[in-house]
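Worked problem 6 (solution included).
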Amino acid sequence: MKKLKILFVFFGLLFLTSCSSSNEEPIKTNKIVCSGGKAGIYPCNNYDLLLNIPLDTFGATDGSDCWGWTDETTNREYAIMGVKNGTVFVDITDTENPIYLGKLPTATVSSFWWDVKVYNNYAFIVSEATNHGMQVFDLTKLRNVTNPPATFTADKHFTDFGSAHNIIINENTGYAYPVGTSKSGTYKGGPLFINIQNPLNPVSEGGWGMDNYSHDAQVVTYTGPDSDYTGKEILIGSNENEVVIVDISDKANPATISKISYANVGYTHQGWFTENQQFFILGDELDEQNFGNNTRTIIFDFTDLDNPKQHFIYTGPTSAIDHNGYVNNNTFYLANYTAGVRFIDITNITSSSISEIGYFDTYPENNGANFNGVWNVYPFFKSGKIVVSDINRGLFVIKKQ
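Solution. The predicted structure is:
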């Protein structure tokens, strides 16, 4: 009997311990692991959700562009996101304890379209809001926000132009290039040249307007395979119906190098170089709607800048529209609207072969060819955090498993 009694007490203790554990308050976490193809409500593959902050936290109804900033003094990481009525700043160093630091309101009126880039610890912000110009904001002020969220003011409001769709910065030269300005302006919506080496005293130095309106662009100090242009400042413009390559080293005398188009143009939207600057990966924003194809990515061979060639076409697994894409190492990060963010391995791009290796879909309703879901992705934090801006659901931070 003694042995039985001991066993009874032993199992009773186990039972009580189990009951006690099941009644404990679960540990709250922002992280949701991608398991079995889902992270909560979000379809996924190989990428976990670290954080989602909805738009109402920011007092906004629509999201647009995003970028990021690493404070090299403190090693803290910040997400920057455009919303309909301004630009918001979030400390995402610890995604379990994010800090919404505040908002820089629009310089004029609200708009769906915002873009931001960073240079020398300053954010440069443009919008299609009427007469918005360019706001310059000192990001080091984010170190000492005592009562967040704060309402910030710009450190400089540059008004040499009105609205702009996008802004590109070459950090190697200290020049900013607003694009998508007025088609009736001096440069017909082509890139403007603004010296921002002193961020608080931007200086206009002309522009290039010899072709169509530039919707987006990339500007690099060229280190690619075409030795004719080594060390030159080269602009690759996505110009509605074609891609243009321009030498803008001499701001007073920009020189068109070449241009190239492709079949079934919907809207030549945005593209990015591979890291060796041999291939250019382009997205067309309207071909899915106009022609009924799945997400189409056009890869060009820019080995010879004077004679660019189409290399091959990659077709994605859904009918969603592609928006912005960026390359970091051998991964192409594609903001794919309703299909979320797609992660594409480009290791074998020379052999005309790239393949999807993961995704995180912030818009689970559908993968249709419509303008919902992911606007932009920022994949350049050393920590591996990836910032995603969603039109409908706000700010996401995800990370590869």
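Discussion: Residues 1-23 have pLDDT under 50 and may be disordered.
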